[in-house]
């Protein structure tokens, strides 16, 4: 005699666990499981793409289209690598730097072709997808079986396999080469230099337009009027010529100041010692200048050092409320050292909009350092380092003995 189960009782075929057995998995584990299951699809796509494009490109390299096809295939590897980085970022929490772009629009066809064929980033991405297929099959199979058979240990399996995936992503999909990171930094620094140069050109144009140019235009008009009055009113004409003479002196002074702001002649002729002493003499506070250099650095480094000290002394005059200041310049190994101190009120900050941020960017663009120590109440000490680069003397007609 058989008895039917009581209403609501579980039958032998009922499994109360499917809804509850995975409740122990946290969100991180589920993201890892999703990543491992997707591995098979992405591995197949990446493997087929890499093998096809590289085989075709290498096989057709004896023809005109072979190498360009290979270069395009390597660019595609970069794109697939970007997709994999995004997937690892979303599901594994792996945040890796993006490699520097090739910028094909900035080069001709042959330079682009050569840069693409020797691109280490693309080749590492190709290697990543070439070795991923066996691993993708393993992770998909183990994870799928674990979901239905080995689920108690699945979190541990998922964590172990995901750790391998994280290692592969970090090892092959990020710019691990120090040279690549340095190139990216130099490209960024080059942008800063270009921005500063453009700003300087705009400043020079504005100063010429609003200053000397406007004054010379007015001077030409005054001289024209004086010429007309020369016969009918000589005294008025003479007075106008005298005023024009004064305007000429002012215009010449403005042009000298503008030229000094571009690159002072005293710096070119006599070096940092004389040039910084000249700057210090125009400061509103007493400044002691000490320059101890065994030789002159390269012109570019010398110019950056001059304008750095010049702007710092302008800040001393405008903002510090100091009574005295000092400028020290010396060489330490392969570095040119600058230090400007004042006994003012302190509180200077690179991010306060006082022009210090621009100086820091300018020094960083040539691999320099810029450090500000300015507690409230003072004193303020600004230390700058620049790379020492020996000056190359090139004189027309000079003969080296």
General description of the model:
The protein is α+β, with helices and mostly antiparallel strands and 401 residues long. 62% of the residues lie in helices and 9% in strands. A 5-stranded mixed sheet has the order 1-2-3-5-4. A hairpin with a 2-residue loop joins strand 2 and strand 3. Helix 2 crosses helix 4 (120-148) and helix 9 (272-281) runs parallel beside helix 10 (299-320). It is elongated and about 110 Å long. Mean pLDDT is 77; it is low at 5-20 and 393-401.
Keywords:
401 residues, alpha+beta, Single alpha-helices involved in coiled-coils or other helix-helix interfaces, Heat Shock Protein 90, 3 domains, five-stranded mixed β-sheet, 11 helices, 5 strands, disordered C terminus
Mean pLDDT: 77
With strands numbered from the N-terminus, the spatial order across the biggest sheet is: 1-2-3-5-4
Q: Largest sheet at a glance?
A: 5 strands, mixed
Oligomer: single chain
Query: What is the helix fraction of residues, given as a range?
Result: 55-70%
- Strand proportion, as a percent range, falls in 5-15%
Distance, first to last CA: 122 Å
Helical segment tally?
11
Low-confidence stretches: 5-20, 393-401
What structural class results from the helix and strand content?
Answer: alpha+beta
The count of β-strands is: 5
Domain count: 3
**Which outline best applies?**
elongated
């Amino acid at each position: 005699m058989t008895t039917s189960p009581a209403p609501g009782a579980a039958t032998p075929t009922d499994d109360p666990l499917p809804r509850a057995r995975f409740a122990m998995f946290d969100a991180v584990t589920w993201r890892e499981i999703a990543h491992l299951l997707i591995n098979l699809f992405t591995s197949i796509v990446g493997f087929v793409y890499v093998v096809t494009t590289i085989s075709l490109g290498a096989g057709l390299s004896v023809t005109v289209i072979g190498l360009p096809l290979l270069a395009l295939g390597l660019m595609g590897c970069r794109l697939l690598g970007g997709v994999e980085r995004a997937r690892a970022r979303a599901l594994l929490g792996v945040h890796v730097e993006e490699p520097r772009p090739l910028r094909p629009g900035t080069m001709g066809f042959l330079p682009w072709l050569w840069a693409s064929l020797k691109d280490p980033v693309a080749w590492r991405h190709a290697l990543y997808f070439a070795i991923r297929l066996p691993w993708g099959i393993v992770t998909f199979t183990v994870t799928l079986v674990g979901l239905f058979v080995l689920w108690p240990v699945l979190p541990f399996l998922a964590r172990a396999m995901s750790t391998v995936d994280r290692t592969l992503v970090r090892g092959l999909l990020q710019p691990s080469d120090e040279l690549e990171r340095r190139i990216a930094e130099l490209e960024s620094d080059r942008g800063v230099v270009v921005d500063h140069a453009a700003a300087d050109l705009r400043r020079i144009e504005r100063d010429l337009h609003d200053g000397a140019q406007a004054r010379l235009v007015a001077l030409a008009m005054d001289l024209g009027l004086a010429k007309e009055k020369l016969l009918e009113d000589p005294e008025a004409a003479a007075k106008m010529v005298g005023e024009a003479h004064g305007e000429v002196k002012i215009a010449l002074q403005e042009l000298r100041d503008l030229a000094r702001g571009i690159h002072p002649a005293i710096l070119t002729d006599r070096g940092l010692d004389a040039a910084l002493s000249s700057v210090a003499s125009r400061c509103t506070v007493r400044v002691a200048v000490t320059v101890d250099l065994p030789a002159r650095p390269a012109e570019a480094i010398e110019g950056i050092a001059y304008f750095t000290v010049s702007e710092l002394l302008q800040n001393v005059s405008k903002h510090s409320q100091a009574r005295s200041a000092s400028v020290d310049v010396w060489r330490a190994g392969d570095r040119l050292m600058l230090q400007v101190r004042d006994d003012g009120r302190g509180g200077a900050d690179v991010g306060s909009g006082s022009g210090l941020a621009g100086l820091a960017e300018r020094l960083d663009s040539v691999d320099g350092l810029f450090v500000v120590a300015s507690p409230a109440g003072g004193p303020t000490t600004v230390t700058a380092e620049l790379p020492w680069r020996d000056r190359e003397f090139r004189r027309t007609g000079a003969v080296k003995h």
